[in-house]
Amino acid sequence: MKEQITRQSIQLFGEKGFTETSIQDIVDALGVTKGTFYYYFSSKKQLLADIHLLFIDDILTREKDIFADTSKNSETKIYEIVNMLITSIKKRGAEARVFLRDRRNLDPDQVAEVVDKRDQFRLYLQKVIEIGIEKKELRDDLRPDIVAFAILGVCNWSYFWFDPDGPVSDEEVASIYVKMILNGLER
Questions:
Q1: How far apart are CA 96 and CA 51, in angstroms?
Q2: Most distant CA pair in the chain, distance
Q3: 3-class DSSP state for residue 135?
Q4: Are 114 and 53 in contact (CB under 8 A)?
Q5: Domain 43-183, CATH
Q6: 115: which residues sit within 8 A by CB, 6+ positions away?
Q7: Which fold has domain 1-41?
Q8: pLDDT digit string, tens, across residues 121-160
Q9: How distant, in Å, are the alpha carbons of 15, 51, 82 from that of 110?
Q10: Residue ranges per structural domain of the chain
């Protein structure tokens, strides 16, 4: 039931927004009582924090696996990170929109935990770029931190406009992004 509450909440938060969605809306959509909700979550903010942590923990784990693969060069790792973010829109787009949009509704201690993990994600990407520069796979006249922020900005904004059921596939968008990024980074 906890997972059902979480999934229904992601859908409602994505459609209506966190502040406009009440606990009553959530339980009504599931046909359960508020007691059921409070059995699993102490508050709507705790639910939102759980949604944030589930999302960031999953993509951070996937990124760490890409980072740790020593058989791949930096360009391949950048492609895989971008592709992971874009192709996940179809399955996790609503969750990502909640993650990217509703952080401001978390309590300060919850924000700190989420921001720390977001920073870890960015720093892994930045390290991929730095290693690529060291190995002379990528050009060395651009700041790796700014490049990492730019890549994440391009990918994160896609959660708000990209329709994976539209005329362009998620793989095609990821490929375009990576070509655009790497043509500006290649040595």
A1: 9
A2: 60
A3: coil
A4: yes
A5: 1.10.357.10
A6: 103
A7: Arc Repressor Mutant, subunit A (1.10.10)
A8: 999 999 999 999 999 999 999 899 999 999 999 998 998 8
A9: 23, 11, 26
A10: 1-41, 43-183
